[in-house]
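Project standup — Tuesday

K.O.: blocked on the structure for the chain from last sprint. Re-posting the sequence here as requested.
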Amino acid sequence: MSKSPAPPNPNSDSQGPTPPTPQAEWELALSQLRATNAELQRRKADAEKDRELFRTLYGTASAHASATASENAALLERAERAEGQARDGLAMVRATYDVRMRRAEEEAARWRAQYEVLVARERRAAEVQEELRARAGREPELRAEVERLRGRLEALEEDYARMEGLVEVLTNAQAEETEEIAETAQASVTSAAVVVDPI
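H.V.: unblocked you, prediction finished:
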């Protein structure tokens, strides 16, 4: 917008600056407009650069978000697969552990039974050894008892032989006596028959 030139000041020095002419005003306004245009062009270029930067950043962010979503899906799938494998593996390990524990318990029971058998045998062996020691300690006494019993047996055998001889003598004497009695009885019977039936 152009301004009308100011009227000359009568009090001003005739050698002072001259008021601008309309041509100068136009040139000044033009230069100002050119400067404004250049500033606006610069701002537009900066805005376009910012727009391209934002577009690039948005694309990068979008690609990153897509990649992150894909990676998250892959990680989730891997996590689910790993969880399933861990669950199955844990069940398999638990089953294997149960089998091994059962075998170990059976083995322990078998060894415990063998141990008890060995302990019982050792106890019996100790009792036998103790009895043998006791017998060995009583050996002189038992030997004297055996000698005493042997002498008694010999004495009893002698008594038996003597009694056997006595029984034989008595048997012979009784047999002779019986024979004599029989002969006497026979003689008596014969005599009685002669007396009863004389010829």
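K.O.: great, moving the ticket to review. The chain has two helices and no strands. The CA atoms of residues 29 and 85 lie 81 Å apart.
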